[in-house]
Amino acid sequence: MQAAASWFARLHGAADDPGIVAQWNAWLAEDARHRLAWRYVEAINQRFGNLHADADHAHQVLSAAHRERHSRRSVLGSLCIASTAGLLGWGSWRQGWIDSPRAWFATYRTGLAEVRPLTLRDGSRVWLNGQTALDVQFDDAVRRLRLYRGEILIETGADTRPLEVVTRAGRMQPFGTRFSVRDQGLRTTLSVFAGAVQATCAESGRTLRAEAGQMVVFDVQQGTASGSATALRQDWSRGVLVAEDMPLGQVVAVLKDYRHGHLGIDPGLDDLRVVGTYPLLDTDRALAMLERALPIRVVRTLPWWVSVEAG
């Protein structure tokens, strides 16, 4: 994939050079993995290309409106179309496609590399991680939070009404607690930091209880204890990654969730140990800090293709 990204960069600057094109075609023909990697690079570029195309379209509409001296109504109509296309392109590129259509109309949504704190009417405090969609539904009988995508950290407020958090996998009822819920499609990860939470699988009705310091993973049918609740599942609310002898491969995997494009790592560096506090919402700065602290180098083949390699 790194070679495919390098070829993409070379062709971008020399697409009319028959020698370069011939070498590229020969590289493609060498191995099916080369062709697969090339399609992957093209797919990532397409996401960025759509964004640039929307911006170009908006510029063309504005220029045409100026040249042709359209009526005020016509110009406003063109601007609305261009702006809508641009915003939709930006939104889908920035946030990614959300599985459930209801997520688009959720009460609260965040984009990539965005952490949002909330204080609800009952006094509960909620933090939304990046690319999260959450509905808040309070009535006289129950306080309900519906998590369609992403991750939330909750500190429950004092209220006589029961509180429940609902995902596709099931529902969770806390008992005076601080906990995080991470939706992973068909699975949900529950990490409890104080108090206790009972989780109920959506289809089977099976229940699991997680006490402070525990983490459970469950789907619509069953669940299981999955070790200790890690600090990572609440440190993100402060916009940081605290690494205490953490494998570099895991650090890179976390940073991937807070940036666009491809972020890869040489597999030989996966087990390199990392210590320190790194900014999640500024991954370029985090990578620069890692580069200074470890025997690695960060290679930026393209603006949206970054690799961590041996220094």
Automatic annotation (TrEMBL):
PANTHER family: PERIPLASMIC SIGNAL SENSOR AND SIGMA FACTOR ACTIVATOR FECR-RELATED, PROTEIN FECR. This is Transmembrane sensor. Residues 2-43 form the FecR N-terminal domain. Residues 107-198 form the FecR protein domain. It comes from Pseudomonas cremoricolorata. Keywords: Membrane, Transmembrane. The lineage of its organism: Bacteria, Pseudomonadati, Pseudomonadota, Gammaproteobacteria, Pseudomonadales. Pfam families: DUF4880, FecR. One of its GO terms (molecular function) is sigma factor antagonist activity.
